[in-house]
Amino acid sequence: MSVKYTPVQWNRVKYCYDALLVAGTILFLAVFLPLPPEALGHTRPVDPQITNARAFGACAFVMLSIILMIGPLARLDDRVLPLLYNRRHFGVLTCLVALTHAYFVLNWYFAFSPTDKWAASLSANTSYGQALGFPFETLGIFALLCLLVLAATSHDFWLKFLGAPLWKGLHMLIYPAYAAVVGHIALGALQSQEVTTFAWITAFLSLGVAGLHLAAALQARMSPDPQAHAVPDPAWREVCDVTDLREGFAQIAQLPDGKRVAVFLHEGQISAISNACAHQNGPLGEGRIVNCLVTCPWHGFQYDVRNGQSPAPFTEKIPTYRVRLKGSRVQVDPVANPPGTPVPPVPLSKAARV
Amino acid sequence: MTGAEIIVEAARIWLWIGAGVAVLFLGFGMAMVDEDADGAFAFRPLLVPGILLIWPLVLWRWGRLAMGSDDWAWRYGPPRAIHMAMAVGLSLAILAFLLGGALVKQSWPADSAPQQLSAPEVSE
């Protein structure tokens, strides 16, 4: 989190996260680089530059696979949520490792090219019409370009400037990028490997990523957030019964415009806010209230449920909704108030009066 | 000029335009559209690579925010529905690459005999 783009709330856990990232990367390279040629499927010693390229390439692939597993795993199991906190740092480090891989490749295989090295990498093989000998380099360049865009737009400024939906749409480039990386490996390095270990590792990781994303998407489809029901008064929608509410937690419902509302019970009073966090549109309704503030389960951004405002000095705001009780039924006005609009909470004790 | 050289030259031009946009945006435009950026300078160099790469998007958002035509409600609608399509597409692409790569892979036994593919040219 930041105030005027100055980082605040950096704690020991976050420093440890980044330290582990760097240590893990160094450890991977330290193990990979001294591997004997036969372990890499080579029948004779290879030049150090090639080993370097393969070590950094393999490292980038493993890192990218882990990054892509964190998201669906966090959807399937709350215990993985802490790994989301600094995932963008993980992504930037992965991009740097992938760039190093490209540096070694360009400065070895295209070192004496009479044309620009990048142009040479694009023109050395143009057999796009065949699977055997497909120019896998182009797949790698595409993936690297995607990673550069994602890393370069990872700062919180971009989230605010582009808006979370557009930012997230842009960052979905990670999917075609990962597919391109798998193609880059399967049609490239694995074609010259006599040792099947790396083929199995590639298949295990990439199918693991695919399986986890399918599982998370299926779970979301099979247990969707309930729709807010229509009531005789068209200005209101019914979300749940008061007995469904639990102190400090929310009930989430989809509104007719497709957006989600999170109805919280806090200190015996009901408030309704947007389910989408202002930061990355994380699911606020899946968070809980800590010190009077609902805390986003993704990155810890906090809001007062009564006005949708982050506590000072933070400036983030989310839309609020009017809420009322009809008997024991909780109803919300589906028209959101502008972000940060205070709405008086409804005491549970009023349930019988409406 | 080959096709590859044209692509690389186009990329170079793209980045130079991005550099111009970065100077204008970071120097003048940013504080106009983001009050939090007003007076905050230390982080601005971090944004240069992003502007170089996605400057058309920067210009578009800059224009919308400067004209006040940005819809606040739009900011709170995450694109959740697309995840299933992305997951299916990713899975199919991975399968295609893994199977395709395995199918076209050539492996030769160590003792395979040489095979003459065409008759040698006879010089007269």
Rg estimate of chain B, integer Å: 27 Å
Q: What global shape of chain B is seen?
A: elongated
Number of strands of chain B: 0
- Describe the largest sheet of chain A: 5 strands, antiparallel
**Describe the biggest sheet of chain B?**
none
Please, how many domains of chain A? 2
Compute the number of structural domains of chain B. 1
Give the helix/strand class of chain B: mainly alpha
User: Which blocks of ≥5 consecutive residues of chain B have pLDDT under 50?
Assistant: none
Assembly level:
heterodimer
Helices and strands of chain A, in N-to-C order? Answer: EEHHHHHHHHHEEEEEEEEEEEE
Instruction: Report the helical percentage of chain A.
Output: 40-55%
> What number is the mean pLDDT of chain A?
91
Give a brief outline of the structure.
With 354 residues, chain A is α+β, with helices and mostly antiparallel strands.
Question: In words, what does this structure look like?
Answer:
The complex is a heterodimer of chains A (354) and B (124). Chain A is an alpha+beta fold and 354 residues long. Chain A folds into 2 domains: 221 residues, no CATH class; 122 residues, Rieske [2Fe-2S] iron-sulphur domain (Rieske Iron-sulfur Protein, 3-layer Sandwich). In chain A, a hairpin with a 2-residue loop joins strand 6 and strand 7. In chain A, helix 6 crosses helix 7. Chain A is elongated. In chain A, 39% of the residues are buried. Chain B has one domain. Chain B contains 3 helices and no strands. The longest helix of chain B has 31 residues. Chain B is elongated and about 75 Å long. The two termini of chain B are 41 Å apart. The model of chain B has no long low-confidence stretch (mean pLDDT 89). Chains A and B meet through helix 4, helix 5, helix 6, helix 7 and helix 8 of A and helix 1, helix 2 and helix 3 of B.
